[in-house]
Amino acid sequence: MKLKWLLICLILWFQVIGNNGCFEEERLALLQFKASLESDEHRSKFPILPSWIDEPENNCCEWERVSCNSTAAHVIHLSLDNLWNFDGMEYIYDLKVSIFQHFKELRSLNLSYNNFGGFVEKEGILLLYLNSPYL
């Protein structure tokens, strides 16, 4: 009987406290997405996603434009729309969508107003499971 109560208390404690950080696989995928955008020579002069810092103790659930499930700490929403101020310049960029295959619980993805010209590496993307993909 005591073991049963202990188990119930542990489950409730984890539900209330939740996870202390995001999943490492998802954190690394977000950093990979940011790096892929910063590698473009035309965009390097624009600061992109400054809260996304590559430090292991950095919780990606607290980063701008990222929302996580409160109990499991999986990334569930990414609001990555309008990342740059183009100042009238037209940049076309091909998006590597395979980066998003690491987000098993992702339910909404907003990539609008970024002048993405196409998609590369289309395998593995879970767009069918998204409730509201804005591409």
UniProtKB/TrEMBL annotation:
Residues 25-69 form the Leucine-rich repeat-containing N-terminal plant-type domain. SUPFAM superfamilies: L domain-like (SSF52058). Residues 1-18 form the signal peptide. The keyword Transmembrane helix applies. InterPro entries: LRR_dom_sf, LRR_N_plant-typ, RLP23-like. It comes from the Eukaryota. It is a single-pass type I membrane protein. Pfam families: LRRNT_2 (PF08263). GO terms for cellular component: membrane. This is Leucine-rich repeat-containing N-terminal plant-type domain-containing protein. It comes from Jatropha curcas (Barbados nut).
